């Protein structure tokens, strides 16, 4: 398939009832800087560039369930975060305010929940 013009994914947006709080969690977790901070939108960028993270206020936010359960809000997406030391990365994530999800589908991956309940995976990279 030919794309008529170059398209560049610049940012992944997460809905949240408190953009500043969730952005600060991910800034600590990833070691990224806050690039833009407004009342309803906060954007993080890595120092070396790449895709950023944005946190947008959603007043009707409903915490997703993990794993999916019938009749409950399901996650719409999740972040995959590659790590070289899974136990150390998990310890860091928990110290930042994440919780370890009760359901862990793989031995070499740890599913965590951010403070608003968005799942993210820590997985081993070589």
From TrEMBL:
UniProt xrefs under Pfam families: Glyoxalase_6
Residue ranges occupied by any VOC domain in the UniProt entry: 8-126
Full protein name: VOC family protein
Source lineage: Bacteria, Bacillati, Actinomycetota, Actinomycetes, Micromonosporales
